[in-house]
Design goal:
The protein is an alpha/beta fold. The protein is about 50% helix and about 10% strand. It has a six-stranded mixed beta sheet with strand order 1-6-5-2-4-3, with helices on both faces. The structure holds adenosine-5'-triphosphate (ATP) and magnesium ion. Adenosine-5'-triphosphate binds next to helix 5.
Amino acid sequence: MGISRYAYKGKRRFNISSFDAADTGDFKSRDQAVDQFVENLLVINKKQQKLYSERKEGVIFVFQAMDAAGKDGVIRTVFSTLSPHGVKEFCFKVPSAEEKSHDFLWRFWSALPARGFISIFNRSYYEDVLVGKVHAFYKNDIVPDRVKESDVIESRYRQIKDFERYLYETGTRVVKIFLNVSKDEQARRFISRIDVQRKNWKVSSGDLREREYWDDYMEAFESMINETSTKESPWYVVPADHKWYARYLVSEIVRKTLEEIDPQYPPLDKDTEKALQEYRQTLIDSLGEKGYQEQEKQPREFSDPSLIPAEMLQQELLDKQDESNERMKRNGFKNVRKLLASNYIIRSLGDIMDAVAAPSEEEDEIPAPEEEGENEETRNTSEIREHIKEIAEENEKETKDA
Ligand code: ATP
Ligand code: MG
């Protein structure tokens, strides 16, 4: 399903009052999104490896939202299959005294991704046209006379656009995601955070205070999106009342962004290839009489050292599968999951389960079909299995070619 209906690229106006935060697109339940979500993670994983190897373009995914909209969960689940060396998350909080003594974009320069890297901005400079606008913090700034208070927010929109344009033109894409939760759903999530002890740490009185400015925030979000959406750095407004749908949609956005970049493993030039062959021969000669036998292909799970801990985790989870996997069975996800695990593609199955398969206590459930028989288990999985097989084979081929 297309994500274009959630995209703002500078032409279409965003109207927050007519946006349905409980929208689930073409899906009626979480179960229907599972296969596509998993496939997206697979593609994202593969594309990120290429992005990292190519070292040509950097990407920033910016996340903005009201409290309890699910930013952290989205980030944890959608980026969970990525190789940690290519991704960094930055959480931007209230600026420090030092940060405040600089221009508002200053603290973001050091978080920009190098080529081939992905930076996740968990909040960003957009706070300066959100919380900064709602509470008019700029009034406390000591600035030269030429800076007019009445122009500050308008100027920031332009400065942000210039900044993002500069980044785009110099090799870094910025993709912005607003997780749009409704006021009622936020209330439910706050209540749950108060009721459930293990979630208590997430509640702060500040969150409740900000809720009182809800309408001002909505106005600020709407203007921000209308003023800073561009073709190169689009905004996506993601309905966030259903966590599974938000996570699925973000996986679509990340996938599409990486597909647009279309990174490729860098080819060796002829001279380097020739030099490598010569070097190989020198190495073989150095072994003398001991000679060199083509090594047997190592078992796949140990072929990439960086994956070993992840695979151990998978094994552990798979071992526990029989006892704890009833839910997965219901969701027709088990076969896909096994397949992914056997190909050592998914790093944290727990996260995937959390993301799409496990019902969350925090959100309104869309009722699932009452009883699902054995056949349900394999429902919808054959197609994705074919696809995953293709990806696995392609991977295999690339490993051989490499
Ligand atoms: P969580 O609550 O899930 O831990 P969070 O992102 O809400 O994550 P908090 O420490 O609760 O983290 O909140 C960070 C706070 O910092 C937010 O209230 C945000 O508005 C504020 N903040 C971020 N940037 C700025 C800024 N430039 N000026 C003022 N406040 C800012
Ligand atoms: Mg918070």
